[in-house]
Amino acid sequence: MALSRKQPGPPADLLPGCNALDTMIAMCAPKTLLSVSLQSSPDAVRDVLARVAQTVAAAGQNPTATNNIELAMAEALNNVVEHSFHETAKGQILVEITLDEDVFCISIRHDGTPMPGMRLPEGRPANVGVDSANLPEGGFGWFLIRSLVLDAAYTHRDNWSELVLRFARLPEG
Amino acid sequence: MNLSSTITDGTQVISVEEERIDAAAAIQFKDRMRELTQDGPTRIVLDLEQVDFIDSSGLGAIVASMKQLGEGRKLDLCALSPNVDKVFRLTRMDTIFGIYGSVAEATGPAS
After folding, report:
1. Is Transferase set as a keyword in this record (chain A) (predicted)?
2. Does residue A90 sit in helix, strand or coil?
């Protein structure tokens, strides 16, 4: 039922280097709230976002913070559909949500094209101080994600990319 | 993507009759806006009252809708829910559009 965290390659105990992602995973208690696979298409993203929002809301996240998670996840998943699978619906994306006491840890895994330079974009704010004819129509995604998460980590190993976004659990009141 | 359009006192009000303007809807939104604004008043107010979720693709589609109006025409926004308002504020796009609380406020006499 739950997706295994194990990835292809040497077992974790043969990799004593303990990278940032492993540290992050270790910090997240293995209480899995949602584990789903989706096709790389905008409609499938919309469906899975509804499940993500439902899942974190059921775990006590207040409506504003639930929308923050849904928005960051929308940006992250839309980027995967657009840039890792080049807007073809042929890829599979795995989404897993775990909850530590007060932190949601959300993993997005896929075997499509990795991030350029194998690292996360800086996410600079788009320049809106220009003539309206030259206003940007995109490039907001990573700025929004970085504005909404506690932190973000990316790893690429054995052809698989994993993005882990963490969010504070913020109950009502 | 359901959009409805009315013209009141020389202003075209376009109401988005959907809960989401997201990546799955962005292209349709932009196309419908182009059809509805091909000719008509110079000022258009986009009523977002029913919209509860927008992502950066949806935001980009609204910006594109404004740009495709061409010179001398204007797109204002009204009735942004907190979730929609947040996306405009974070990206600073709230500084680009005129933003009103409601259709009545957007189309009422200037104070």
Report:
1. yes
2. coil
